[in-house]
Amino acid sequence: MIDTFFALYLKIFFMMTPFFIMSVFITMSKDMSKADKKTAIIKMGIAVMVSCLAFLCFGQYIFSLFGITLDAFKIGAGTVLFLSALDMIRGDGEIPEKDLKQSKDFAVVPLAIPVVVGPGVIGVLLVIGAEMNTPMDFFVVISSLTAAVLTLLWVLFISNRLQNLLGKQGLEIMPKITGLFVSAIGAQIIFSGIKGFLF
Description:
This protein has about 200 residues and is mainly alpha-helical. The chain has one domain. The protein contains nine helices and no strands. The longest helix is centred in the last third of the chain and has 40 residues.
């Protein structure tokens, strides 16, 4: 059953780990002009939206192709998401320095994929996509996804202001707080899969 718009919006938004993405973007774009930063953000947003829609729409077919049940995938995806959240909380989810030293065209790879749309996000999108049964479900999911991506873009657009407001210590704390929400989402998905498998 598809959650409400607001619940799905929050789930997808926190899955994208916005404050971790913001810290990565600030590091990767520190030598870019404002115009180049805006272009990179828009390009990243398009790449994220297109890839997310692909995983949403083809989730059911992927399950059928590999003979995977939805409940089994929920347990697997929830576990990956939970482990990713633990890395964020421990501070192990940093991008290697060599990967940060990219050319200016980093918006799609590695920023959109795999930093934003990583294994955890892909897994949950496949689960959500497989649960869409009606046109209203599809509308709610697409609206929630669009709102989440637009909010992520807004966070990146004001990243410099947030950096000044939060400071270096604040930027280190926010991903850990986000990790707590992501771990809760992961645990809920695991419990849902176990419940469906047993009952």
